[in-house]
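Quality-control log, excerpt.
Job 1 of 2 completed; input and output follow.
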Amino acid sequence: MCSDFVCHYYIRMDWPTSDGVPKMMYGTCCQCGHMPVKWYRCGSVHLEMSEPTPDPHVPTGEIASPEMSRILVVDDETSIVRFLKEVLEEAGYHVTPASTTHEAMGHLAAAAFDLLITDILMPGSDGLELARFTAGKYDTDIILMTGYAEEFTYELAVEHGATDFLVKPLRPRETVLRVKRVLRERALKKDRESMIRSLEEMAITDALTGLYNSRHFYGRIEIEVSSAGRYGTPLSLLMLDIDDFKEYNDTFGHLEGDGVLVRIGDVFRECLRKSDSAYRYGGEEFALILSRTHTPEAVAVAHRIREEIEASELSPRPGHSMRITASIGVAEHRPGESAADFIRRADQALYESKRQGKNRVSISRK
């Protein structure tokens, strides 16, 4: 019993069953052989079933796991939506149906979707505009579908932000494989992006303390100085050096010295605002950029950091308790001052703290 509806879409044969539970299987339309369709059968009815013939245009290869993937399906024809929902849910995906672009936009605003599958031509709706809107606003891949392959091409779909293109009549196997390919490539892309972010973070981070490194400091201080000059906002810089760190290393070893550096990083994270940033400048010396901060506030932060470091009790050996101290120099950026001169003044203030006996805060007055 073949019809255009059977060949173009999806049918369910609601035959009676001997046990009351229909059995489901894939086959080919018995008259035209055009597309795999899903049949139900009971023990009293026998159908010749065979695997669908592989289509060279259907993507193959390893497929991504469908777990947790959310798909939004948009078409004004309920038979198409029903077909896609059932086929994709059987493949393990969570499917949300919509019949208009307006309804689809509501779903997109309310929840995150990995994939949008939308028809191009719908009464009162424009699938191409929905694709363009989705591609520009959401992190969602797109598959466009149409029954007018002569008018709409794959190139047009890509131009509107789509990842792939389906031509009606839809075939279950091809549809599922194309969806899996798009989602697999999406997952691979996200993995690459995550790896790149990790590598970028590693390039600017000190592995021991977790603070930014000196390379990042020099780039950041230039940006902060430029911003302070452009907008007239205050900017302060703290330079910090651990007192007698070489002696501590020589006495207790480099591993215990590393523990001191890690503790210094922890103190910074406890004492600084999110808008501030801390850097391992070199060895046991650190730099802290305090944006939108005048000298009095910067000095208060410096004293809080110095006191926290001094209060930190270390145990480099069993039964042996030690405390460390730090010297700090503070400088506030001056209009027209270069980043190099700014750093130099903060360094000079640090050396003044060392000269005066260590474990203190000095302010650049020059």
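Job 2 of 2 completed; input and output follow.
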Amino acid sequence: MKVEQLENGKFKIFFEVDAENWGKALNASYNRNKGKLRVQGFRNGKAPRKVIEMYYGKEIFYEDAMNSVLEGAYLKAEKESGLKIVSRPEFQVEQVTDETGVVFSASVYTKPVIELPEYKGLRYKKADGQVTEEEILNEIMEEREKNSRIISVTDRPVMEGDTVLVDYEGTVDGKAFEEGTANNLAVSVGSGDAITELGRHLINAWPGSEVTALVTLPDSYRAELAGKQAVFKINVKEIQVKELPELDDEFAKDVSEFDTMEEYRSSIAEKLVKAKGDTEFQEMHYQLLSQLMDATDFGNIPDPMVDMEIDAKLVSLEEDLRTKGLTLDVYLSRLSVDISTLRDALRSDCEVTVKARLLLEAIAEKENITIPSEELEAEISHLYSGGSAMLPGVKLEISEDARADLEDTMRVKAALRFIADNAVEESEENTENNEEEVL
């Protein structure tokens, strides 16, 4: 095994399969494929290897034999090289003979080495985490809206703000037009949008009555109709109004596990406090990581690292689309873009993700951050058990690669927590002192 540096961050690994193992691979390929190769004068699968090679050429079994030995030989060479490889290998056959075996090369990119800035004692501004009465009320009113119901009103005419169920037919110059007819259409009175311009003609109309309205068709209609006067005959079928529940103890029982409105209100406040706390935590992490990334010279990030991150994003996107009954092709069609354009759109964010991970991995390595085995097993159980409780002492078995990836991710998160634990909240008093020192 030999390693040659091609350029900054790119290497070529040379590795070989010796003549003995190469011969075994060729014999194995012959045995796998001899039944598929026809040779005149021999029954199917009975022709000797030498005869097949004379008939089809000496290299007839090379490709299949190479495929059978390549992966194992490369993995051994990768481990021996000591390189931190971050790309898929690009293989090439350098030399092959029956007498000496086969020599492969693999071109790979390695993880960039970055010089860490100072990452302890970073300052951050804490957001105002107070929950206001208005925010609590907004949450309650939103729940109230969800529990409203539509009722029919028959004892009064149409008023501003009502929703009216109508049938209508419109004509232009005495002729009906396709867009001018509708049945059981809900018209919002006073909404002001183009579709419900009819609504203003319904005020004071009673359910069961018929109204004639003269309307100027808006520009959203096709060219031959836009701007023309249309006559609509409207049958007022029903007035619908939204009825909101009273904000009392019964409402609290209906929408929550609590018996009183006061208990329900307190639970809303607690939920908002927690949500704001989570947001503050994320904002603090964002501030600290942004400071570090701005202070770090990443050099040239290998394109394959970013490409692999884009691949991961696309896999995640496809899984999300699948839950919605869509495919990536349909999604791209609706956006009127191709896969190349989507990849280009994702590249910038994915490059930031790669840089952030490189930075945090470097900090985790420098600080010798490790994940206790019990924490790793607990996370594996959480992610892979499908929500089922695990019996004491029972471990889930996952692949070594999946385990290593998960452990790396946990170390990255632990590195971010380490930065946060060693950061300093920047209060107004601290800010004033810093300004005085500058002056």
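Post-run check on job 2. Residues 2 and 14 are 5 Å apart (CA to CA).
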